[in-house]
Specification:
This protein is of the alpha/beta class. The protein has one domain: NAD(P)-binding Rossmann-like Domain (Rossmann fold, 3-Layer(aba) Sandwich), CATH 3.40.50. About 45% of the residues lie in helices and about 15% in strands. Strand 6, helix 8 and strand 7 form a beta-alpha-beta unit. It starts with 6 loop residues before the first strand and ends in a 10-residue tail after the last strand. It binds nicotinamide-adenine-dinucleotide.
Length: about 250
């Protein structure tokens, strides 16, 4: 029960690693606010956590709107009284999500904007929205989901890679801005993860994609008191993919 009496906000909590993070925080004692733009799925996820004895609420939020994000943080404060953890998990490759095949030279404005706004701007908005509460509480933890593409670059994911590398810089600056207030920030940068079967074909030197649980285990460790001295750090969890040699 590492998160007993803690309040966690998880974005992208309707599916994949965000959903698993929310379930695991709740199973270890946190009160969890599940945030996602997918109304039906995020509601069902929160209800399922409550049915299993956890404490959870859902908020339907498009993280691209600062107004919506600020309202969400205020709702969570009103509902649970504090915000100890923010896990910025919502994100994705705009070529896939916006159904925009082809190279960078064919990328639509809609896909470029989605790629930056969901993978980078939205997380900044959420950090900004929770910072005052964390400062007042004299503590908090922010976990940002990056990607190996942000570290190595990826020809097929130019905008996504740019946004995800931004998460590393964001994390470092948040760590410095937050340190005097007891706020930590860490970035988790996975290689391919089996949240979709298609990820199995992406190679790593270890010969497989990660299981979502492996990434979430790291995320929960970094969120916990066991990681009290860790801040400003980016953790690759990519089966050595970033070491090269995968051509
Ligand atoms: N799966 C991988 O292989 C992989 C690899 C590296 C990094 N990542 C990163 O890890 C994170 C989670 O990945 P996943 O595969 O579990 O994702 P996923 O696609 O299963 O879930 C993403 C969630 O974000 C939500 N979302 C999208 N736009 C939103 C918006 N505007 N506002 C609020 N919510 C929104 C979606 O509804 C969805 O529930 C992402 O940031 C992703 O970029 C994933």
């Amino acid at each position: 029960m590492r998160f007993k009496d803690k309040v966690a906000i998880v974005t992208g909590a309707a599916s994949g690693m965000g959903l698993l993070c929310a379930q695991r925080y709740a199973a270890e004692g946190a009160k969890v606010a599940l945030v996602d733009v997918n109304a039906d799925a995020v509601k069902a996820a929160a209800v399922a956590i409550c049915e299993q004895g956890g404490v959870a609420s859902h908020v339907v939020t498009d993280i691209r709107s600062f107004e919506a994000v600020e309202k969400t943080a205020a709702l969570v404060l009103a509902r649970f009284g504090r915000i100890d953890i923010l896990a910025n998990v919502a994100g994705g490759n705009p070529h896939r999500v916006c159904n925009c095949p082809g190279g960078f030279e064919q990328m639509t404005l809609e896909a470029m904007d989605w790629g930056i706004e969901v993978n980078f701007t939205g997380p900044i908005y959420f950090c900004r929205a929770v910072f005052p509460a964390m400062i007042e509480q004299k503590g908090g933890v922010i976990i940002n989901l990056g990607s190996v593409d942000g570290m190595t670059g990826a020809a097929g994911a130019v905008v996504y890679g740019a946004a995800k590398s931004g998460m590393v810089g964001l994390t470092k600056s948040l760590a410095l801005a937050g340190a005097p207030h007891g706020i930590r920030a860490c970035c988790v940068s996975p290689g391919p993860v089996m949240t979709r079967a298609a990820m199995a074909k992406m190679k790593t030197p270890l010969g497989r994609a990660a299981e979502p649980e492996e990434v979430v285990n790291l995320t929960l460790y970094l969120s916990s008191q066991d990681a009290a001295m860790i801040s400003g750090t980016n953790y690759l969890i990519d089966g050595a993919r970033s070491c090269g040699g995968m051509a």
